[in-house]
Amino acid sequence: MSDIRENGDSRKIPIDKVGVKNLRYPVVLLDKAHNRQHTTASINMYVSLPHNFRGTYMSRFVEILNRYHLEIDIHKLGEILRDVKRRLEAESAHLEMEFPYFIEKEAPVTGAKGLMDYQCTIAADLARHFRLRLGVAVPVTTLCPCSKDMVEVGGHNQRAEIRVVVEPEGFLWLEDLIELVEDCGSSEVYSLLKREDEKHVTSHAYENPAFVEDVVRNVAARLEKHQNVARFKVAVESFESIHHHDAYAFISRFR
Q1: How many separate helices (H) and strands (E) can be counted in the chain?
Q2: Helix (H) or strand (E) holding 21
Q3: pLDDT > 90: percent of the chain
Q4: CATH number of 65's domain
Q5: 155: region left, alpha or beta (phi > 0 left; psi from -120 to 50 alpha)
Q6: Number of domains in the chain
Q7: Are 45 and 95 in contact (CB under 8 A)?
Q8: How far apart, in whole angstroms, are the C-alpha atoms of residue 154 and residue 149?
């Protein structure tokens, strides 16, 4: 059968990325506490397409994933992208994964243990060189400094989310990246709290009021000092409890 995807295209316009999105697939990750963790990722895979080809081979992306025996180890991302470039005759290949990552966390006073899930991302590109980026979304509590200053007791507080993407220089645990940013707000968030823990968390937040501007600067200051972080971007979004809008702050050190 003839393959019209290999026919020439009169528009002569190259495509930066073409491929498949939202493939659900099992993946295996290194786990600092338990050696390995199995989770399920939503995967996007793309290649560049020269101007002289009408289309790419979408089925080959899935064929390449299947070759890795239904489990993708992140240490094989470079190998996977080399396969993609070769099979699809592309100058560049890209892979993105988004997945929940679970960490057991102890309550601050009683030590009660509960599982926290963090939404994480891994993105890899291969053109002339291999490039890797790690991302984490970390929930925190923020307490408004203005609110605390205006009233005699209390202050409005809300949950916020810190989203960090880093380009590592050397090996970097997801757990360490999460821990690095988790206490940059007014208080950490837990999955299981007893009454003593709730009192501690509430009091701690009150004693550490923070705007989104404070939180984003706290995170940026730590990332700038980290020896295994080459570049980064950090966004903080506060899901406001007394306003009909959210508050947002962003810093980037990508070039």
Answers
A1: 6, 10
A2: strand 15-31
A3: 69
A4: 3.10.270.10
A5: left
A6: 1
A7: yes
A8: 9
* Joined tokens for residue 198: 């709730």
Distance CA 190, CA 106 (A): 8
Residue 29 lies in a domain: yes
Is residue 94 classed as helix, strand or coil in its secondary structure? Answer: strand
- CA atoms of 210 and 217, how far apart (whole Å): 11
**Confidence band for 7, pLDDT divided at 50, 70 and 90:** low
75 alpha-carbon distance from chain centroid: 17
Q: How many whole angstroms separate alpha carbon 168 and alpha carbon 232?
A: 9
At 237, which helix (H) or strand (E)? Answer: strand 229-238
What's the rounded Cα separation, in Å, for the pair 138 and 177?
10
Separation between Cα atoms, residue 204 and residue 188, nearest integer Å: 9
What domain range includes position 76?
Answer: 14-252
Tell me if 8 is assigned to some domain.
Answer: no
Which tens digits make up the pLDDT trace of 139-177?
Answer: 999 998 988 888 777 778 899 999 999 999 988 999 999
Whether 54 maps to a domain, the answer reads: yes
- Is the predicted pLDDT of residue 66 greater than 70, yes or no? yes
Separation CA 70–CA 72 (nearest Å)? 7
pTM: 0.90
